[in-house]
Amino acid sequence: MIAPQAIAMETTVDGASSTAPPGDTRALKALLAARDFPALLRATGARDAKAPAERWLYRGKALEGLLRLEAAADCYREGLQRWPESASLHLALGQLALRQGDRHAALAALERTRALNPDSLDCYAALLHLIPLAPDGPEAARILARALDPGRDAAARARALFLLGQLQVEAGRDRMGFVYYAAGNRLTADAIEERKREYLVPERLLRMDRGTFAAAAPSLPPCPALVVTGLPRSGKSLVESLLAEHPAVTAGGEFAGLRRAVADTRPGDLSARLGAAAAGGRSPFVAAYREHPLAAGFFDEDNAPGSDAQQRWLVDSSPANLPRLGYFGLLHPEVPVVLCRRRAADLGLALYFKKFRSGHGYSYDLAAAGRAIARVEQLIAHWQAVLPNPVLVVDYEALVTEPAAMRARLFAHLELSPPPVPAATAGDRPGEQRAQTAADWRLFPSKSPGAGSAPDPSLLGFAERFADELKPLVAAYDAERR
């Protein structure tokens, strides 16, 4: 399966001659923001040939969230039969084609979006996965106008600044590009609560030792989760894609099942809750993964993990799982874990160049990002030393320079025989089959690789171009490690 990427949250509908009542739109937008995809699907379920474009857009987003990608594509196409000039439906179809690795379909839908709504930032962000945009061209002028528009909110202006930074850096204008990125990061950081601008590792996690897990062998139902975690841009998506080549492994995206399992419990009450769970034979982690959109393939009719002869795995690649691995290990010490890390300067630059839709407040300040990377490295080393689970640490540098060897190590970690290496993926034109290259999916530090992309080493050392600008990050990283 293809590793699911982040779901685009744009909900405006441009180019349609009808709109839903404002109240209906607000309710649907709230469900999408809350990622309550089952409720959103129900709310958009009425069949109505005259339904506004919003109905098709939100229903498609619900289907994407439930990982029913083909059904989502059909929904967008059906909506476009009724609203052929809806830029947002064309955009959603193009973004979905990117998730599915269909370059030809993605480019066609996104170019149509650009023609209908040349001011769409989400369209330009998606297009940059496929084609370059001139830093002095009309698209850049439109993006700059958005960045300078005082009528736009801070998030929209910051997003425009990040795009301008990418256009400049891709054109080799590194200094100017970094100026745009710095402005976008400052604007974003100003809107974040101060307490959320640092990545903090609670001391209670570092106090967990091998003695903590000495009795971690409860007879609980097995958990199908395969946790692949680390900071964003550390190689998690590449690992997930490699693992999903095996029929026993399903890419489940950033579900954050470990966080979901303990989200309603205060840290001081976790030990008691987990102890009671172990005694009662009921795992909150298994309960959390029952809610995954793909859970039906992993649990039997009684909602217990399936009893197939061969173990089947559901990958969860959320960064939010990393600090919660200790609690997971107490109840499921048998589940393999993959921890991803990357050279500090390259990782820090990739974080600083990324405008996240939510969370990761530490990434908008260079010093805070340096401290975050050092703290995560410490936590990864700690879990590697004390967790009872089988742990494999994957370095991004080895992943992209020695992919065959790393692929073999990953499947050995799961005690699986490596499947045949995929020979080809979708090409530029319908019916064409050939291997994808970096030219198909344009590489940039802030982007996850395109679906089906092979590991590529071309971004190694990218941060060296910004050695002067990254001095605050490197200094903070070094100080935190001392």
Structural summary, described in words:
The longest helix has 21 residues, at 366-386. Helix 18 (366-386) packs parallel to helix 21. The model is unreliable at 1-19 and 424-438 (pLDDT under 50). This protein is mostly helical and 482 residues long. It has helices at residues 22-33, 37-43, 53-65, 69-82, 87-100, 103-116, 121-127, 138-148, 154-170, 174-190, 203-206, 236-243, 257-262, 270-280, 284-289, 325-331, 344-352, 366-386, 396-401, 403-413, 471-481, and strands at residues 225-229, 249-251, 313-316, 337-341, 391-395, 425-426, 433-434. The strands form 2 sheets. It has a 5-stranded parallel β-sheet, with helices on both faces. It has a two-stranded antiparallel sheet with strand order 6-7. A hairpin with a 6-residue loop joins strand 6 (425-426) and strand 7 (433-434).
H and E order: HHHHHHHHHHHEHEHHHEHEHHEHHEEH
Q: How many alpha or pi helices?
A: 21
**Any idea what the shape is?**
globular
Q: Which structural class do the helices and strands define?
A: mainly alpha
**How helical, in percent, are the residues?**
40-55%
Proportion of β residues?
Answer: 5-15%
Evaluate the radius of gyration.
23 Å
Strand arrangement within the widest β-sheet reads: 2-3-1-4-5
Euclidean distance between termini CA atoms: 42 Å
Number of strands: 7
Low-confidence segments, given as residue ranges, are 1-19, 424-438
Q: Indicate the mean pLDDT.
A: 88
Tell me the major beta sheet.
Answer: 5 strands, parallel
Keywords:
482 residues; mainly alpha; five-stranded parallel β-sheet; two-stranded antiparallel ribbon; 21 helices; disordered N terminus
